[in-house]
Design brief:
By secondary structure, the protein is α/β, with parallel strands linked by helices. It contains 7 helices and 7 strands, in the order H-E-E-H-E-H-E-E-H-E-H-E-H-H. Helices cover about 30% and strands about 15% of the residues.
């Protein structure tokens, strides 16, 4: 049985630090209304923009539907679901669809994923298990789960971090203020993590998280915290990069040769 744990939001922790600095007596009472109810069942929501030439090849976009109990989940992860859904709609509404399929998955139960052991019953593992036979034809994946503040960095899997695709992607996203990082992707995200563990390459559109944890998992996670202009920048970046990947014939799984040592 795991031990219960509490986390203070940044503003609350700052307030406690200010009171302590004044030398005043300080007592903190913590209460949690969170619970994990055995036997409950969640769902993933899946939608495809079917590819016109290679529909079996899938570019997978992920975000999650559930939120923490205190807030409305605007930044975690309502913003992410809006970003990837809007990006997919922009692609669907183009005069012709991309060569590969673009798949949007809105995962269930991400917020209870962290206590679960590998293979636990949450949306990311359910998707990987239910689509195991298809994962070999999933060409690329990415996740939006860090609010809606602006994207500043693009990272690609090793097979695409050099060459024409990287150059075109960098040029395409530069007007949005996004820099290309030749350091490849680190942690892809909780929801798409099981697919990545199964071998699906990941990309990362890294967002500014300077203020994310000020309201993350608190009652202040509400829609008024979303900046529409920054949300638009996210949607534009996702739509542009995903279209490029879905229209390309790049093998994002291709092995990468180590650099040749110089004498």
């Amino acid at each position: 049985m795991p031990l219960p744990a509490f986390a203070l939001s940044n503003p609350d922790a700052d307030q406690i630090e200010r009171i302590a600095a004044l030398g005043l007596a300080l007592r903190v009472r913590l209460f949690s209304s969170a619970s994990l109810v055995p036997g409950t069942h969640s769902q993933n929501v899946i939608a495809d923009v079917r590819g016109r030439e290679r529909p079996q090849e899938v570019v997978l976009l992920g975000a999650h539907l559930d939120s923490w109990d205190q807030g409305t989940g605007a930044i975690d992860d309502g913003a992410g679901t809006a970003i990837i859904t809007a990006a997919a709609k922009l692609i669907r509404d183009l005069p012709h669809r991309p060569s590969r399929t673009v798949r949007v998955v809105l995962y269930g139960s991400e917020e209870v994923a962290q206590p679960n052991p590998p293979g636990g019953a949450f949306g990311g593992y359910a998707y990987a298990a239910n689509h195991r036979a298809e994962l070999a034809s999933h060409v690329l994946t990415g996740e939006s789960d860090l609010g809606s503040d602006r994207i500043y960095r693009l990272a690609l899997p090793p097979a695409a971090a050099q060459g024409d695709f990287a150059a075109v992607a960098a040029r395409l996203l530069a007007p949005l203020g996004i820099l290309f990082d030749r350091q490849t992707v680190g942690e892809a995200g909780t929801d798409v993590g099981p697919a990545v563990e199964a071998g699906v390459p990941a990309f990362e559109l890294k967002q500014d998280a300077s203020h994310y944890f000020d309201i993350h998992h608190t009652a202040d996670d509400t829609l008024d915290k979303i900046d529409p202009r920054q949300l638009d920048q996210n949607v534009a970046a996702w739509a542009a990069l995903v279209w490029l990947a879905a229209e390309s014939d790049v093998d994002f799984r291709a092995p990468v040769s180590p650099p040749t040592p110089t004498s």
